[in-house]
Amino acid sequence: MSDIGAYQTTTTDPHEAGFGDYVQLLKPRVMSLVVFTALVGLLVAPVSLHPVEAFAAILFIALGAGASGALNMWWDADIDAVMARTARRPVPAGKVQAGEALAVGLALSGISVVMLALATNLVAAALLAFTIFFYAVVYSMWLKRSTPQNIVIGGAAGAFPPMIGWVAATGSVSVEAALMFALIFMWTPPHFWALALFMKADYHTAGVPMLTVTHGRKSTRRHVLAYTLLLVPVAVGAALTQVGGMFTLAVAVALNLWFVIGAVRIWQRDEAVAEADRYAVEKAFFRFSLLYLFLHFAAFLVEAALKPFGLGGW
Question: Are 168 and 239 members of one domain?
């Protein structure tokens, strides 16, 4: 359990927070991925929203993602403070007090869910509410500190945005929405385990039971390969649905071939060699994983754009 009260008494050099500090509280880099995948889910859906409704839907989904980020920073202030990767976040850096982060997170949660319901439909709003709850409570408060499967199960929180976008447009879940969800869900473990391979010291210091800490790097490398192989049929399957087509399938095959090659290289790594070259292969795989997800969803958009010309789809 996070000892926020104890943390607040040790925060040094407090000052009045600026606008940029509150923006950082919402995890804008994570939000950008949420916005993009939710937008894709909304735009490739078979039902079109009015541009104003579509803009409102994406805005409130983004606010929901920001709420999740603020609540996560409130709860994780103690471990963020001892991890090099997160020590400069607004709460551990003393720029925003933990109580303020909690207030911002709760306020944005309520606003985003209610306004998404008014702008689109109750199903989309319910999914957004569940996503915020899942990330803030199920993942941050429970899974993250209790099990090495934290990122596997917790990855569902980041996988919901395209489904929410789809449901905002259609009012219901479909096979296409489920496979877009599954694509992100299966991508999340190899993505974060690659990061953990070269950031193990951070998680060890913070006492977070990441797989690298509990089972070691060798086991983590095997898991990266296993989940990458499980990801391939999901990615190809999504390309074979109504949101896909020949272009999307070609992109999926190329990206997943490259991703598997990268996972195999990680699996084959000797730890002494990896440490000697500062985990260059792992870092390259992690960076490519970001491009991998972006290009998959960009392919869905391109396919949708080609359909009016008779060039996209099946």
Answer: no
Is 94 a domain residue? yes
User: Comparing C-alpha atoms, which of 187, 32, 55 is closest to residue 116?
Assistant: 55
Specify whether the CB–CB gap between 205 and 82 falls below 8 A.
yes
- Give, for all 314 residues of the chain, the pLDDT tens digit: 444 433 443 344 455 778 888 999 999 999 999 999 999 999 999 999 999 999 999 999 999 999 999 999 999 999 999 988 899 999 999 999 999 999 999 999 999 999 999 999 999 999 999 999 999 999 999 999 999 999 999 999 999 999 999 999 999 999 999 999 999 999 999 999 999 999 888 888 888 999 999 999 999 999 999 999 999 999 999 999 999 999 999 999 999 999 999 999 999 999 999 999 999 999 999 999 999 999 999 999 999 999 989 888 89
CB count within 10 Å of CB 275 equals 12
Q: Collapsing DSSP states into helix, strand and coil, what is residue 44?
A: coil
Closest CA to 99 of 130, 76, 74: 74
Domain assignment present for 153:
yes
**Same structural domain for residues 184 and 309?**
yes
Q: What Rg do the C-alpha atoms of the chain give, in angstroms?
A: 20
Identity of residue 282: E
Tokens at 82, concatenated: 């001892």
| DSSP state at residue 95 | S
Domain count, the chain: 2
Query: By residue range, what is the domain housing residue 122?
Result: 18-173
